[in-house]
From TrEMBL:
Name the UniProt record assigns to this protein: Asparagine--tRNA ligase
Main location: cytoplasm
Swiss-Prot/TrEMBL GO biological process terms: asparaginyl-tRNA aminoacylation
GO molecular-function terms, A-Z: asparagine-tRNA ligase activity; ATP binding; nucleic acid binding
InterPro entries: Aa-tRNA-synt_II, aa-tRNA-synth_II, aa-tRNA-synth_II/BPL/LPL, Asn-tRNA-ligase, Asp/Asn-tRNA-synth_IIb, NA-bd_OB-fold, NA-bd_OB_tRNA
Reaction catalysed by this enzyme: tRNA(Asn) + L-asparagine + ATP = L-asparaginyl-tRNA(Asn) + AMP + diphosphate + H(+)
Keyword Aminoacyl-tRNA synthetase: yes
Localization terms from the record: Cytoplasm
Subunit structure: Homodimer.
CDD domains (alphabetical): AsxRS_core, EcAsnRS_like_N
Similarity comment: Belongs to the class-II aminoacyl-tRNA synthetase family.
UniProt source species: Flavobacterium glycines
Record keyword Aminoacyl-tRNA synthetase present: yes
Length: 477
């Protein structure tokens, strides 16, 4: 007999004479009530065992974590909170789980402990919910762009380019480890290596994406990106997924409109398709908030926060205005910022971004027209000669969720900028071809997928929204 998903059984419109379900035991109470979960939904189905007619040997093997198959009838449940349950007539243990050793016992585990067990944490309610929401969000990303006629482009993972010019790349080499330099003077001879040149894992698919936008009009990438920045924070991963749309003939304002519309669409999609999981995560968050002092508790619940983003336009503010606000803020004057903001041109730290979003504007903010000096080489220089058409979208609780810009479409200006920054023109000859042949205004942005999942699930550490987090000193799996 084919098994039916627990989700479909719970959503059944009638009782059913014979059904089969397969899944993992969450709990087993009074030798009679199994809470069975198969991952299709946050909700367990209650399976009522006829313990008088079941061998003791079998009952003993119904332990948390065991894989079982139950056959029986789907009947109305007398228990609270569930419409149906399975009255079990046949029970088979598919895979035992030693109750003494299984780490995911039904009790509250710390997130740190769960991170060390990333291969098993997905068997908990919270991580099951997070990973389902993540999956739905990635479908929503494709759904949004495909509906709008964007072409999905797979940009290279191994590349010779440093798209951000920030030098935070993981080098790729086929040379045996014992051939690596033993001290700093000794250099690897990359000419002898697989590609005959330095290569690295991509930090962004943008540059390749731009070449496709200049032919296909509207494109997007959605893939893994890698950064060797040694930022051990709750917002940084060494391996994360990024969504990067790029659109020919869009200026910075059109870019902002696209980003806002896109973010709203995917959040709405999650609200419409992940109701049970988001409700569960909201409850989890409320529990967590209770342990905080009143003043530090969030004013909004998770669902209120998500709906707030749907209903309110993001505040668009230039870098210069933001700096004025920060300089004037009493927090800055009283030096409560770790890095005080004293002059125009300083890069904003996450404490400043969060001040603007959480304390000053109290809504998502798009900062634009940043000083050229603190942004990447490819951004369009403004007429003032000192700012570029960059934008960062800042979210409450997250900080920067999107970074993007209108691109420098003028060949000469771009080359001059690259020269000034010491970026090798010869290596980027193919990128410069977009400006040599049929150049045009174009814009795009990158959204860090895990930061989006953080926001939607209400989690606070980025390690908890990706299946197997990669961070400095951590690649257990
Ligand atoms: O601001 P970033 O570095 O921009 C780019 O890479 C551009 N090439 C994007 C573009 O215009 N096509 O990164 C974009 C976003 C950030 O706003 C952030 O959300 C995320 O990627 N991000 C990270 N997420 C997790 N861990 C990290 N180490 C991240 N670095 C950036
Ligand atoms: Mg950025």
């Amino acid at each position: 007999m084919r098994h039916t998903k627990v989700k479909d059984l719970l959503n059944s419109t009638t009782t059913l004479e014979e059904v089969n379900a397969k899944g993992w035991v969450r709990t087993f109470r009074n030798n009679q009530f199994i809470a069975l979960n198969d991952g299709s939904t946050i909700n367990n189905i209650q399976c009522v065992v006829d313990f008088e007619n079941t061998a003791d040997e079998t009952l003993k093997r119904i332990t948390t974590g065991a894989a079982i198959s139950v056959t029986g009838s789907l009947v109305e449940s007398k228990g609270a909170g569930q419409k149906y349950e399975i009255k079990v007539s046949e029970l088979e243990i598919l895979g035992d789980s030693d109750a003494e050793k299984f780490p995911m016992q039904p009790k509250k585990h710390s997130l740190e402990f769960l991170r060390e067990n990333a291969h098993l944490r997905v068997r908990t309610n919270a991580f099951g919910a997070i990973m389902r929401v993540r999956s739905v969000l990635s479908f929503a990303v494709h759904s949004y762009f495909q509906q709008k006629g964007f072409v999905y482009v797979n940009t290279p993972i191994i590349t010779g380019a440093d798209a951000e010019g920030a030098g935070e790349m993981f080098q790729v080499t086929s040379l045996p480890l014992d051939n690596l330099p033993k001290n700093e003077e000794e250099n690897i001879d990359y000419k002898k290596d697989f590609f005959g040149k330095h290569t690295n894992l991509t930090v962004s698919g943008q540059l390749e994406g731009e070449t496709f936008a200049m032919a296909l009009g509207q494109i997007y990438t959605f893939g893994p990106t890698f950064r060797a920045e040694n930022s051990n924070t709750s917002r940084h991963l060494a391996e994360f997924w990024m969504i990067e749309p790029e659109v020919a003939f869009n200026d910075l304002n059109a870019n902002m409109d696209l980003a806002e519309d896109f973010i709203r669409y995917v959040i709405k999609y999650a609200l419409d398709h992940c109701g049970d999981d988001l409700k569960f995560l909201e409850g989890r968050l409320l529990e967590e908030e209770k342990s905080k002092p009143q003043t530090e508790r969030s004013e909004m619940t998770l669902l209120e926060k998500l709906n707030f983003v749907l209903e309110n336009n993001f505040k668009r503010v230039s870098y210069t205005e933001a700096i004025d606000i920060l300089r004037d803020s009493t927090t800055n004057k009283k030096k409560k910022f770790q890095y005080s903001i004293d002059e125009w041109g300083a890069d904003l730290q996450s404490e400043h971004e969060r001040y603007l979003v959480e304390k000053h504007f109290k809504c998502p903010v798009i900062l634009f027209d940043y000083p050229a000096k603190i942004k990447a080489f490819y951004m369009r220089l403004n007429e003032d000669g000192k700012t570029v058409r960059a934008m960062d979208i800042l979210f409450p609780g997250i900080g920067e969720i999107v970074g993007g810009s209108q691109r420098e479409e003028r060949f000469d200006v771009l080359v001059e900028k690259m020269k000034a920054l010491g970026i090798n023109e010869e290596e980027l000859w193919w990128y410069l071809d977009t400006r040599r042949f049929g150049s045009a205004v174009h814009s795009g942005f990158g959204l860090g997928f895990e930061r989006l999942v953080l926001f939607v699930t209400g989690m606070t550490n980025i390690r908890d929204v990706i299946p197997f987090p990669r961070t400095p000193m951590n690649a257990e799996f």
